[in-house]
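Fold these two proteins, one after the other.
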Amino acid sequence: MVTDAGLLFLLALRCHDALGMERLEDLVKECLETDELTQIGYGSGCISDGVGYKTGNGREVFVKVNRTSDALVMFRGEEASLRTMADTNTIHCPRPIKVLENIPGGGCAIIMEYLDLGSSGDEAALGTGLARLHMHNWRSLENGEGVANFGFPVATSCGSIPQDNSWTNDWVEFFCRKIDSQLDRLGSGSSSKEAKSLWSQLRPNIHKLFDGLVIRPSLLHVIYDPASFYGHYEYDFGINQCFPSFGRRFYEAYHSLIPKEPGCELRLQLYKLFHLLNHWNLFGSGYSSSSIKTLKDILRKI
């Protein structure tokens, strides 16, 4: 039962949020040099909230808002990721406009180009575009340019968890660092201890999954979160092993440009492991059993 005092508190909180959004809209107007904003969409997610706007001259933008202490790292990383991907001219992604720090109500916001995602689009075109994104740095390296190491100039976030993208010339070590970081966050419960024990057995043998491969850095999208870095192209499909969303036409188009390499199915399980652990850290122990099962499966097959 909600008391009168509780109702007054909720009303005050809602008014505070509304006032914060109104002040945020004033900052957006100032940034876009417009006096008029019309809301064209709204979404609330488990990490951030977003609002679509149309300006008086018809320009459409999307404003993503996050109120946590990690918001600035998240949005600076997203800004750099989107800009770097857009500059390749290989895949259509929203261009970032500006990161707003210390917004009314707390946290940060990022303003970017608005894209209408109301339809699923052309899966084959998406597969082709992602393959071209992954190949872009390879072409640059062939021309004596490009990025020769694994990492990214800034930290990014997977969900709300900051990612260390420090540069290294060793892909296996870069990836193992990502798993180490996730396990360090898990705490000391029995499931966490089991996962850490399994990883201590698996980590020294990870290199076996890459024997005979030449790993060239690709610019990655990291599918759902724009949390880019230069890494092994197969890594971009790890999240899709957890939450399948691409169909046959997507993969046919992608692999017509980048054929599957031997051993890819087990490596995809390895990349899936990162996302399971990340979800365990973000959303709780509901992901513990699938994480432990994946560790055991890889150990058994490696």
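Now the second one:
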Amino acid sequence: MKYKKNARKRDVLCIITFSVILFVHIFYHEKCTRRLQQYEIRFHQIVEEHQNRQLQQKQLFKEKSRTSKITAEIQITSQTEYNITHNRKVEQLPHLVLGILSLTEDPVRRTAVRATWISTLIRLKHQIPFRITYKFLLDKPTNDSLNENNVYKDILYLNVTHHGYAYKYGEKVYKWYKYVHENYPDAVLGARIDDDVFLCVPQMLNRLNELKSPILYYGWKHGKGNKPHRDCSIDEMFVVLGRDLIKRIADRHYCGSFTCTNDGDLVERNYGSTSLSVWLSIYKDVYIHADNNRMIFLAEERLREIF
């Protein structure tokens, strides 16, 4: 009888022990299963993140390759200006320097210019008759424009003392041509163009090649006559000067006041075209050439009439 009671106790203990072991096994199995599921989810997340990083790196590599390809077509000289036509014997071509006046806070236009007629300059580098250097002309540096210039290396800061729309643009004209004279003494022509002007590359450059002269004063002409003066000027949207005229402007002193009295001072007239025409009016040998019939010029008041 005592033996049977002890046997029943052992059976009960065995059942309890087995149940505890089974419970522990099930508990840890479920816990391990959940942990494995978590590891599996995390593993897939890591794989997905890795794939996304690889995709981003591939896209970045493609973008860098595209940029490098474009940059390879444009030679950056020791002065970090862009010099188009580097695959040709550039020393045999006449040098044309372009200054594109642009608002510091308007990178959209600069992007449009680079993507359109500047891109055409590059594409037609084996056909154009000039060695081209271009610069975007900005009043002063900003963080955004400095970052932009780090990418394109095609911005020049004029650091003018006067800012604002149509206010003392003569200073910008003077500083640009002085820069051309000091930095590109081999330039046969120096141009100043607005960033909202579209240049028909082959036609315009072939035309300038026909007309190039040390005393050339070229563009869209306002007024009548063959001599520059206050009422006969080339519009500043696109004006081209020959080497000798550039030197004459650069060698004179700029005066930002209307009351300048020194003979030979470059007196500011607010508008770049009027200022330049007055400055050139003291010379009798200026070759002024208007191509109004070859250009489409829509002033703001004319745009209102058309649209």
